[in-house]
Design goal:
Blueprint: E1 13-14, E2 17-18, H1 21-66, E3 82-83, E4 87-93, E5 107-111, H2 128-137, H3 152-161, H4 173-177, E6 212-223, E7 226-233, E8 240-244, E9 249-251, E10 255-259
Length: 262
């Protein structure tokens, strides 16, 4: 979130003395200008993120037409298309770290064809921490291993250094619902936006109780002011919120990211 802008109420008095009217007016004007600049800066950042995603998709198309596709992407798939050995194509993703700095990398996103399962192959409805443990233990699940991580920061670092690329991960908030920690829309293509193309995914509003919430899906994004809570959302209507990492059993739809080297 942008810092709180200076307002006249912040500067009405100094040391118990009321400031002159002309000074208060100047403070108010400066505060309004600061707020405007912050809003414009935020808007430009969102536009830049969207343009990077669009540019990445166009580069894939150009490479395909020219016959010089990257090793990761051999053609331009359609959203929701099942690609053998990869998963269900969900578009492209240009991640940023928690400070809002871009990694300078773009990835093709593939969702698993089913929700995360336990050792027996049954759908796993569990706490975030149990999902994270299961993800770490995955070996050859739908052809790929799971990535060892406990939160979104570790996943972003893994994408930066390459250790998470190509492995199953618990999706970030951006990949689950398309929003960031501030609630701003930053990723048009996400799991909930394309829930109708994911096959078996729980979209009912029912079936909750006694800390059992199979119709909510977990992300790896932790709350800004509390590392023991992660963002969860319901595909039925996109509603969501933060939930404790070690209570509340929910579903998880893993995703994989493959680098676009074009």
């Amino acid at each position: 979130m942008a810092p709180d802008s200076l307002t006249p109420a912040d500067a009405q008095t100094t040391g118990g003395q009321t400031l002159p009217a002309d000074v208060q007016a100047q403070i108010a004007q400066i505060g309004e200008k600061l707020t405007q600049l912050e809003q414009e800066s935020k808007s430009l950042e969102e536009q830049a993120s969207q343009k990077r995603q669009q540019a990445a998709a166009i580069r894939v198309q150009l490479a395909t037409l020219a016959g010089t596709q990257s090793q990761s992407v051999k053609a331009t798939p359609q959203i929701g298309e099942k690609i053998e050995g990869k998963g269900i194509y969900l578009g492209v993703y240009a991640p940023k770290n928690r400070n809002g700095k871009s990694l300078g990398k773009t990835f093709a996103v593939y969702a698993a064809t089913e929700d995360l399962t336990d050792e027996s192959g049954a759908k796993l409805v569990a706490t975030f921490r149990d999902h994270a443990k299961r993800m770490t233990a995955l070996k050859g699940w739908h052809g790929h291993d799971g990535f060892d991580s406990t939160n979104d920061a570790e996943i972003i670092q893994g994408l930066a250094d390459g250790s998470a690329v190509g492995k199953w991960i618990i999706p970030t908030q951006e990949l689950l619902t398309g929003t960031d920690r501030n609630g701003d829309k930053v990723q048009d293509d996400n799991l909930i936006a394309h829930k109708d193309k994911l096959g078996q995914i729980t979209t009912s509003r029912k079936g909750c109780g006694d800390y059992e919430y199979p119709n909510y899906y977990i992300s790896s994004t932790e709350r800004r002011d509390g590392s023991n809570y992660v963002w969860c959302a319901r595909p039925a209507d996109g509603g969501g919120g933060y939930h404790g990492e070690d209570n509340g059993r929910m579903s998880c739809r893993p995703v994989r990211l493959e680098a676009l080297n074009i």
